[in-house]
Amino acid sequence: MSLRAFRADKGVTLRELASVARVSPGYLSELERGRKEVSSELLASVCVALDTTVADLLMEAVANLSLQAMADELAHTPPAAAEV
């Protein structure tokens, strides 16, 4: 999700990014959907193509995971006694 968001924010198409990062559009699509794992070399190449750093992309991913984890926890937490 973070990779797709960075790409969309930059206004870069999947095909354009794949070309610059020297990877197939299909493989890049699989990465964006979380169906493939990315190597450190490919991640670095994609980040260069997006004019960002690996650290920035990873920070975005951690933030997205944290928000999802919090939303999941809130959805499964019963209301407090004062709220009932």
TrEMBL record:
Q: What superkingdom does the record give?
A: Bacteria
Q: Which Pfam family is an annotated match for this chain, by its short name?
A: HTH_31
The answer on whether this UniProt entry bears the keyword DNA-binding reads yes
Write the record's keywords in alphabetical order, separated by commas.
DNA-binding
Q: Which InterPro entries match?
A: Cro/C1-type_HTH, Lambda_DNA-bd_dom_sf, TransReg_Diox_bact_type
Q: Where is the HTH cro/C1-type domain?
A: 3-57
One example of the protein's molecular function in GO is: DNA binding
GO CC, sorted alphabetically, is:
cytosol
Gene3D superfamilies registered for this protein in UniProt: lambda repressor-like DNA-binding domains
Q: What is this protein called?
A: Helix-turn-helix transcriptional regulator
Q: Which organism is it from?
A: Corynebacterium meitnerae
Q: What is the lineage of its organism?
A: Bacteria, Bacillati, Actinomycetota, Actinomycetes, Mycobacteriales
